[in-house]
Amino acid sequence: MAESSFDIVSKVDRQEVDNALNQAAKELAQRFDFKGTGARISWSGEGIVLEAESEDRVKAALEVFREKLVKRGVSLKALDAGDPASSGKVYKISASLKEGLSQEVAKKLAKLIRDTGPKGVKTQVQGEELRVSGKSRDDLQAVIALAKAADLDVALQFVNYR
């Protein structure tokens, strides 16, 4: 019987993030509680910048953006937002998107699978992804459930299931 395998990755759908950003920008422009606060959200290179004239309004703008990300199916673990920083009269929050499994997280996940996962399942770190292979598809599904239950600080996706 051939071996089955899948990859554990951490990727973000940029189009969904862009859609969430555009929806949040529309809401910031239309909502009454954001009128006259200079609240804006925009791309800044690879990152996202939120601006407003008060600290509580920029935090509220971040919450609006988070709500839109959740509605579009993007995990909040992929968003790395800083604290509000004062820049003249404007408060700014810089946020970035976390993608790819770091070597440290991949090794931690591989160790978890080896220690508590089904026997006969092999793991292999390949760059920014972790390949899991085994003879039984049921074992691989048990590994997926185990990885979902693990409390890691990254958003996990399971791809190339064969």
Rough outline? elongated
Helix/strand/pairing class, anyone?
alpha+beta
CATH architecture call of the largest domain: 2-Layer Sandwich
Looking at CATH, which topology of the largest domain would you report?
Alpha-Beta Plaits
Main beta sheet = 5 strands, antiparallel
Find the CATH superfamily of the largest domain.
Answer: YajQ-like, domain 2
Task: Just give the CATH class of the largest domain.
Answer: Alpha Beta
The H-and-E topology, N to C, reads as: EHEEHEEEHEEHE
Number of helices: 4
Question: In angstroms, what separates the terminal alpha carbons?
Answer: 13 Å
When the domains are counted, the total is 2
Radius of gyration: 20 Å
Question: What is the subunit organization of this protein?
Answer: single chain
Strand content: 25-35%
The residue-averaged pLDDT reads 92
Q: Could you list the spans in which at least 5 consecutive residues all have pLDDT below 50? A: none
Please tally the β strands and state the result. 9
Helical content stands at 25-40%
